Amino acid sequence: MDLPIYYTRAEYIETDTGNKVSRRATISGPQNIILGGKTIIASGAIIRGDLRRTGPGHAVVISLGRYCLIGEGCVMRPPYKTYRGNFNYYPMKIGDHVHIGANSIVEAATIGNHVEIGKNCIIGKFTIIKDCAKIADNTVIPPNTVVPALALFAGSPGRFVEDLPESTPEMVEAQTKQYYTRFQPLPQER
Amino acid sequence: MAPKIEYYCPCLAESPYPPPPHLASSSYSFHALHNLFFCEECDAVRCNRCVLVEVSGYYCPNCLFEVPSASVRAEKNRCARNCFLCPNCRNTLTVVPSDPPEDVDSRMSPIVSTTLGEPPFFLYCNHCRWDSAEVDITFEKPTGLAAQLQKFEDSAPESLEFERLKEHFEPFLRASSSSTALPSASSHHVHTNPITAAASSALARDIPGVGKYNPLSRSRIGRDKAAHRQEYPDYKSRVEVGHAAALSGEVDVELLRHLETVGEVASLEQRWSNSWVTPLRASDLKPLRIPLQSKKSKRCPSCRHILIKPEQKAQSTRFKIKLVAANYLPAIAVTLPHAQAALEMMKRSSAKSVSAAAAAEEQQTAGALIAGHSYSFHLAFTNPLYDPIQIRLAKAVVPAHMTEDAEAAERARRSTFQIQLPSAAFPVGAFAEAWEYDDEDEDMFLDEDGVELLDARGKKGKDGRGKSRSVGIVDKRANVTIVSGEVLIPKEARGDVKFNMLVSYTYRSDDPEPSEEVEVGTPSRSHGTNKAPEMKNFSFYTVVDLGSIMYREEPKLTADL
Ligand SMILES: [Zn+2]
Ligand SMILES: [Zn+2]
Ligand SMILES: [Zn+2]
Ligand SMILES: [Zn+2]
């Protein structure tokens, strides 16, 4: 029903699990990043998997679930703080069916499932966004904010606006799956 | 704007007809499908405007603590843990110690551990940098702050006055709740709570001639109350109103005389919705304990059956009961093929990443409806039921009283658009779980019913007076059927192409009811027993909005879009 969203085949790398990652995105420290499958990283996005907790060994810095979208020009950066005199980065965990609009900056600690974040948002350090919440376009969520489940937040600082409908999980799931289906190579390249 | 469709909820109105779509007020009666509920008992659509809402649990939106209803009252609907709102910007405040941060890095970041540090502690806003030391609120320990703040709140003159009012009305409330016990038991449909009763009674006493609000039996209850009301003494306030006003008035004048910036005066929002006391000066605003939020159950307004019942856990997005209309009525999506075709061409040629804003703008011009042309539109029906359904469409009937002046009606008819919908019923395939997981959805499930398809694309060629345009099924696959309709816009037409459409569908009923009750039942996802299938019918109104009519001097430019 909805129109396809085309991309040029040369720009995107498709993984075995169906993740589509733009060659024009900056993926730092890819060994510290987990993509759940069928997740799209758009052009110009920056994902800082290199900002990891100090110490030996391998650590997951940013994990994304299935059917996520990191929009054009987004910056995903793990949160940091100085605790007992030690500066450290902390991991960022993002659930399934999470869409992040273009040019948003995300430093959240956790984002649940079925979460929609609009364009041009700033999601402050250690923010916790629960399931099925929605952040409107151009919202600034200050550090340490908790966004409860099924809540719409907007403004600067982001505040509660209204409860989202009970059918939000199904709607967001359908939309994110549909988006993945619509996101396809130009027809002349197929 | 993209074309859209919304569903009608009659909200228990007596007239079966939806309001005419050109009335601005009609927007209150139409809703997106995902916002609607469905009562199986009444076999009717319900919306958020008409359902009965009950609180099923309280929680703090910041610490997410589930507050037992017993403590909600004592804690005045606010969080009793360490959750506070900035009185200036409404951000959540952080508790910080007063010792300075050790290194440069953490001074730049206001995130400071609360487990360490030196007293006194204060509340700090990491958005606008307000801190509670500005209003002389500091704490010796970083714990139990809410209890300390509540002490401030409770000792405010406003709070004490309110307590006194409550005390005064207490016996009255008790009496009125016992007197309303009888009528409310006899009819459970309309529930008058004692507070409403007390308020309306007080209003009736103060303003002669105002009837008491009582939807049941106005006069009878009014008389009951009249008998009681003399027994209560007049209220005496703690502070004489005139005296208090005179006092604060002079202070206010003095303040205003020395104002330098507007920001010194607290905004209405800061004062009234964001503060317990209502100070005039922004610098007097106090931090607030965060108001609790609630999880809500929803009931049918007519039969009181539960439509929505959330799970106990505050942050769960699951529901014990969730009767949403999307599981009963077909979902409908409306598109304008000429607009889509234009957009598709644009996207392909200009290759990748057209910015979303630009695309939306382009869509607006490409998808314009120009006076003097006719266009086809597509309606895609998605069946949520496990059985196939048959759908029939009709333009909404306009009630007779709205078209009394025949001549005016004819004149109106000539200058408004004409809509053609497929007249025959068409099938929509059954919903199957498997399709949900088939992301590619490449297979075409055609013609199991021997449906003839129109050529979906071939019709956009002739843009003239819509000669070879057809109305009927365009595509049918899985549980989706797309039909096409047509709109003819006369040269003199203006405004929005917006019309009410009646959708009727027949489905197999599983109701074990006796077959005398024909024609009404409840569409249901559950599979039936081994009884012979019984066909039932359900109808609902929608409003289809195809967009506004554009008027152009030179239609030739657009003719070959
Ligand atoms: Zn309603
Ligand atoms: Zn709290
Ligand atoms: Zn603030
Ligand atoms: Zn009902």
Automatic annotation (TrEMBL), chain A:
Q: Which GO terms describe its cellular component?
A: dynactin complex
UniProt keywords (A-Z) are: Cytoplasm, Cytoskeleton
Coarsely, its chief localization is cytoplasm
The cross-references to SUPFAM superfamilies, in alphabetical order and at most eight, read: Trimeric LpxA-like enzymes
- Reading the lineage from the top rank, the first entry is Eukaryota
Q: Where in the cell is it found?
A: Cytoplasm, Cytoskeleton
Q: Does the keyword Acetylation apply?
A: no
InterPro entries xref list? DCTN5, Trimer_LpxA-like_sf
Q: Which PANTHER family match?
A: DYNACTIN SUBUNIT 5
Q: Which family does the UniProt entry place this protein in? A: Belongs to the dynactin subunits 5/6 family. Dynactin subunit 5 subfamily.
Q: What is this protein called?
A: Dynactin subunit 5
The species is Dichomitus squalens
Supply the source organism's classification: Eukaryota, Fungi, Dikarya, Basidiomycota, Agaricomycotina
From TrEMBL, chain B:
Tell whether Acetylation is among the UniProt keywords. Answer: yes
Give the span(s) annotated as Disordered. 509-532
* Cellular component, GO, one term: stress fiber
The superkingdom of the source organism is Eukaryota
Matching Pfam families, A to Z? Dynactin_p62 (PF05502)
List the InterPro entries.
DCTN4
Sorted alphabetically, the keyword list is: Acetylation, Coiled coil, Cytoplasm, Cytoskeleton, Isopeptide bond, Phosphoprotein, Ubl conjugation
User: What are the subcellular locations of this protein?
Assistant: Cytoplasm, Cytoskeleton, Microtubule organizing center, Centrosome; Cytoplasm, Cytoskeleton, Stress fiber; Cytoplasm, Myofibril
Subunit-structure text: Subunit of dynactin, a multiprotein complex part of a tripartite complex with dynein and a adapter, such as BICDL1, BICD2 or HOOK3. The dynactin complex is built around ACTR1A/ACTB filament and consists of an actin-related filament composed of a shoulder domain, a pointed end and a barbed end. Its length is defined by its flexible shoulder domain. The soulder is composed of 2 DCTN1 subunits, 4 DCTN2 and 2 DCTN3. The 4 DCNT2 (via N-terminus) bind the ACTR1A filament and act as molecular rulers to determine the length. The pointed end is important for binding dynein-dynactin cargo adapters.
State the family it belongs to: Belongs to the dynactin subunit 4 family.
- Report the protein name in the record: Dynactin subunit 4
Species assigned in the record: Dichomitus squalens
